[in-house]
């Protein structure tokens, strides 16, 4: 069991919500990460809550709503826990009709029902095409839902720095969810400082690069057919960046071996990888996934490990620039 420091909390931009710096994403317990066990998922959620986690990220397409239902059971009656969910990918994300008031309200009401809530704390557009963000009509729709009290605040889950910068042009976008880890450092260059200056919160996803940054994989590691690390390895189903942070698997395994040193004195490579994200002052919270109580414990351990020194930060920056960046596929 985790011992040591108490959970720390950070402002989610200027939303007025203070969120646990280590929070959790629920894609894995919903599906697309191999076998799941609902009882174990609920136990894991309870462990996270017991440790002080007060923010969970989900989406209507995680297990076709199953992740939302599990989360609803876990936080029933707890108005001190914030829930972020997402919409649009249950339909054709390229169809402008998906982003109309009538359509978004239906998505929203369905999520509220599954979550057992009257209001969504953070409602996010779920990795829409760049042109949808640029046109901005969906944000007017979300303004209306906020006025009606169905959502507290809204944000965008983006695939690239360009999309994040476009979203920042809309003043009521209060949070950006981005892929950010030791293998994907680009957002820290321009996007994070601009978001911080505007009071926009940052949620860091794919924090362990789909498990690469645990250091547990070899080139021979295999995954189940219903695991995105198998069926989306090269971006066959959705953006390649969501799987292994856009790296070819074998390349990612090789690079992860070269990063084994980060775990020295920090308990594990996974804890160190999350610690590195938390060391960035612009991060509101990191949202690693989980399927078991032990995975929750392992991720929570990152709060207690030593931060990276300036020399270590410089070493990791050089590693990214010289050895990683050229191998990343997809828009980022």
Give the topology.
Blueprint: E1 9-11, E2 18-20, E3 24-25, H1 27-30, H2 38-50, E4 55-57, H3 66-74, E5 82-87, H4 101-115, E6 120-126, H5 130-135, H6 137-147, E7 151-157, H7 161-167, E8 173-179, H8 191-197, E9 201-205, H9 228-231, H10 249-258, H11 269-278, E10 285-286, H12 293-300, H13 310-324
Parallel strand pairs: 3-4, 4-5, 5-6, 6-7, 7-8, 8-9, 9-10
Antiparallel strand pairs: 1-2
Helix pairs in contact: 2-3, 2-12
- CATH top level assignment: Alpha Beta
Number of helices: 13
What is the radius of gyration?
A: 18 Å
Mean pLDDT: 94
Protein name: Aldo/keto reductase,aryl alcool oxidoreductase
Domain NADP-dependent oxidoreductase: 21-320
Organism: Thermobacillus xylanilyticus
How would you describe this protein?
With 332 residues, this protein is an alpha/beta fold. It has a single domain, classed as Alpha-Beta Barrel (TIM Barrel), CATH 3.20.20. It is built from 13 helices and ten strands. The protein has helices at residues 27-30, 38-50, 66-74, 101-115, 130-135, 137-147, 161-167, 191-197, 228-231, 249-258, 269-278, 293-300, 310-324, and strands at 9-11, 18-20, 24-25, 55-57, 82-87, 120-126, 151-157, 173-179, 201-205, 285-286. The strands form two sheets. An eight-stranded parallel β-sheet has the order 3-4-5-6-7-8-9-10, covered by helices on one side. α3 links the parallel β4 and β5 (82-87). The radius of gyration is 18 Å and the shape is globular.
């Amino acid at each position: 069991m985790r011992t040591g420091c108490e959970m720390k909390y950070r402002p989610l931009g200027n939303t007025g919500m203070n969120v646990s710096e280590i929070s959790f994403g629920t894609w894995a317990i919903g599906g697309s990460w191999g076998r799941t066990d609902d009882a174990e998922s609920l136990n894991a959620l309870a462990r996270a809550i017991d440790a002080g986690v007060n923010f969970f990220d989900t989406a209507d397409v995680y297990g076709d709503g199953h992740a939302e239902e599990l989360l609803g059971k876990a936080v029933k009656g707890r108005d001190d826990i914030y829930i972020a969910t997402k919409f649009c990918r249950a339909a054709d994300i390229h169809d402008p009709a998906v982003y109309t008031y009538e359509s978004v309200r239906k998505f929203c009401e369905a999520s509220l029902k599954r979550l057992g809530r009257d209001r969504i704390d953070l409602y996010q557009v779920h990795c829409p095409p760049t042109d949808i963000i640029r046109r901005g009509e969906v944000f007017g729709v979300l303004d209306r839902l906020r006025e009606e009290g169905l959502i507290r605040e809204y944000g965008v889950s983006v695939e690239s720095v360009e999309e994040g910068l476009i979203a920042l042009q809309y003043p009521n976008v209060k949070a950006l969810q981005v892929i950010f880890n030791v293998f994907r450092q680009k957002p820290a260059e321009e996007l994070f400082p601009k978001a911080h200056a505007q009071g926009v919160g940052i949620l860091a996803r794919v924090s362990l690069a789909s498990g690469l940054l645990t250091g547990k994989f070899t080139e021979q590691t295999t995954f189940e057919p219903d695991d995105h690390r198998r069926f989306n390895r090269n971006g066959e189903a959705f953006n390649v960046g969501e799987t292994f942070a856009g790296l070819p698997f074998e390349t990612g395994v090789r690079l992860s071996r070269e990063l084994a040193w980060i775990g020295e004195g920090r308990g594990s490579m996974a804890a160190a990888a999350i610690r590195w994200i938390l060391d960035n002052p612009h991060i509101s919270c990191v949202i690693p996934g989980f399927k078991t109580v032990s995975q929750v414990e392992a991720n929570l351990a990152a709060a207690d490990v030593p931060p990276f020194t300036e020399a270590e930060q410089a070493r990791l920056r050089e590693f990214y620039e010289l050895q990683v960046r050229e191998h990343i596929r997809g828009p980022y």
